[in-house]
Amino acid sequence: MTINGGISFWYATDTTAHQPPRAPLTTDATADVVIVGGGYTGLWTAYYLKRAAPDLRVTVLEQKFCGYGASGRNGGWLYNGIAGRDRYAALHGHQAALRLQHAMNDTVTEVIDTAAKEGIDADVHRGGVLEVARTPAQLTRLKAFHAAELGFGESDRVLYDATDTRARIDIADAVGSSWTPHGARIHPLKLVRGLAAACERLGVVIHESTPVTELAPRRAVTPYGTVRAPYVLRCTEGFTAALKGQKRTWLPMNSSMIVTAPLPPSAWDSLGWSDQAVLGDMAHAYMYAQRTADDRIAIGGRGVPYRFGSRTDNDGRTQPATIASLSSLLFSFFPQLTGTEITHAWSGVLGVPRDWCATVTLDATTGLGWAGGYVGSGVATANLAARTLRDLVLGQTTELTTLPWVHHRVRRWEPEPFRWLGVHALYAAYREADRHESTTHRPTTTPLARLADHISGRG
Ligand SMILES: Cc1cc2nc3c(=O)[nH]c(=O)nc-3n(C[C@H](O)[C@H](O)[C@H](O)COP(=O)(O)OP(=O)(O)OC[C@H]3O[C@@H](n4cnc5c(N)ncnc54)[C@H](O)[C@@H]3O)c2cc1C
């Protein structure tokens, strides 16, 4: 039987995580910086601020517990992708986007090294990222993607043909793949929990079970009191729409995952996957997967992409239809695993800006700042955002504060029902495009997918 929800597999199986929450805020308070949200963005920001300025009074307010959001539920791809790089290249020039890409490459190492320095065991394994094509149209996109990444300085990226791909991981129908060393597998919840503990060791005050109901210049209001601070940082990503005045800022997109029971050595012998690269594909409605430290396969994809009115899920429950479609996707990749038990399923939300570009911002006049809109690439990006927020709060102009995603503004999403209709039409188009490409075997991307990219602002 599959356990559905319970935050995530990572949470459900990590018994050390089942502690009573940290004490909530009980009264009005003051700080130098108040951070809303106890995920990677909020906690890394608190961490780097305290490291740079130990006397700074930093308070984190988290509505449930640290890691309740996407940071405790994700696919554990710590990699160098950042949402919006190509648009930033178009807006600010190739060199600016190249600096952003180099910063992201360095960020993968920064997260691994800092976790090690802080004694955080997050099951890190640096096996890189393997992105696979399974149809001729996907292969065409894969080659274009590979060439684009080389153009952004990834001289260590490798293109594999069908035979070499299957020698790495025995994926049915694989026709090619592109591998980069700039990625690692992590246990997402262990990272966020370890980070919260590291913050506390530095003197950061963390209040859990403390929902912020209003964010305004120099104050964060909760039912239990108001924290006043010169800087108020919103680090709520996929939950942002629930905040007053933010309904149309970032669309809360669902992503769902399933995980198998641990696979026996004989199954791994037949699959390969010994380097434990994280795995993705070039479908329009793409998947992502990892081989977990305890020898399961965790695989994720879009499922039902968006709930009407920007609602979020109920503690990670996903739809039975999504579990069925992710299971059949898994077994189509690995037919030899057909019938393997799926032990857990869950979902979470990520923040999608109208132009699909991640951003980090601080308004020096009001002291309000935020970072997010990472789309599906936030595990490493949140760390880069946090170091950038640190520099912005400390009033320093650095290499990070001059990157092209800093202070980027974008228009808001359409009101309902257009938002719901648009996103559902978009993903219906992507699913149809994937189906069409895998049945016709044409080597070109279907015009339907190109049109969807164009209309959505994603392309
Ligand atoms: C299923 C899934 C798989 C993913 N896989 C990957 C992956 O493999 N690689 C990758 O790079 N990215 C992945 N992502 C995206 C990545 O996990 C996120 O971008 C990243 O975790 C965002 O971190 P965050 O701290 O900004 O947001 P979150 O982790 O969502 O944290 C926000 C926090 O704010 C709190 N909060 C919200 N509102 C309030 C409020 N009003 N008051 C107080 N607290 C509040 C929430 O409870 C939450 O803890 C995935 C996301 C999902 C959902």
TrEMBL record:
GO molecular function: oxidoreductase activity
Enzyme Commission identifier(s): 1.4.3.-
A Pfam family assignment: DAO
Group of enzyme by EC: oxidoreductase
Record keywords, A-Z: Oxidoreductase
Superkingdom, natural source: Bacteria
GO cellular component: cytoplasm
Name listed for the protein in its UniProt record: Gamma-glutamylputrescine oxidoreductase
Organism the protein comes from: Streptomyces lavendulae subsp. lavendulae
